[in-house]
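Quick one: co-fold with magnesium ion.
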Amino acid sequence: ALASRRHNGFAFGSEVADQPRHEHLTLIGDMRTAMAENEFVPFFQPKLELVSGQIVGAEALLRWQHPTRGLVPPGTFIPFAEQTGFIREITPWLLATIIQQSAEWHRAGLSLVTSINISTLDLTGRQLVIETGRLLREHGLPPDLICLEITESALMDDPEVALRHLGELAALGVKLSIDDYGSGQASLGYVQRLPVHELKIDRAFVDKVDCRGKSAAIIRSTILLCEELGLSVVAEGVETDAELDWLKRNRCGLVQGYRIAKPMPAAMFRQWLADRP
Ligand code: C2E
Ligand code: MG
Ligand code: MG
Ligand code: MG
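Sure, here it is.
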């Protein structure tokens, strides 16, 4: 098991089961305060369309701007929030923040699809469906400017219920994306059953893809699959020129990764867009 990281006397990691109960409560309390104090900040990572060279969207990636620990990445608190159910408070808050931000960009004339990551627990009830519909109407945002990224594992708990709620979300007009495609199970079954709009090829396949071999074959066949099904395809975690060139040659639709830009705060992202040639 991963060692929990300890700061200020309490555990801060994803191994919830290993931590004493009072530590859970402290961290949950901390997260609640964080939300009230606006310490949760969405960063944005651009999605580049290769054929046009345009930035067509951005993925919101949550960070915790902690007063003493600095910028905390989601890998340290999202799994904890998922295991304790606190994610049920984070996702609606994030959704409201992102829809408001997206509506602002839309009014400013930017044509960007903003993606947010959702978790298993977000799909167990109808809250997300209701909230999404309400927020889109309230802000007058075209639904197809919002995309929900779902990891395959997010569907595993109660697939039937998750599928029904995803169907309802799709019926609102928002886009659905399968995240980390290829790293989980049952992916093709979900692609078949869900009104999915996009597949994101897991970073593990993109890594060193120029070296040929299995990853190259997997990516090429996923690009073909998406062509056949009329889906967008995104390569995640593009870090090098060689990876980018390979993806261009193999007609991958969209790319995301440090080679294009790292995730950044909203204002910086706007500036980055404005500075592009
Ligand atoms: P993800 O949705 O698959 O997001 C991609 C992750 O890869 C992000 O890490 C991003 O910063 C990182 N990344 C992007 N380009 C590169 C690259 O070129 N190289 C490398 N090495 N990494 C790259 P991040 O922001 O730490 O997020 C990790 C995961 O945490 C996300 O994976 C997502 O599953 C989860 N997450 C992030 N924000 C949220 C959120 O608001 N809600 C939920 N439920 N999960 C979130
Ligand atoms: Mg994602
Ligand atoms: Mg991913
Ligand atoms: Mg992931």
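If it helps, The chain is about 45% helix and 20% strand.
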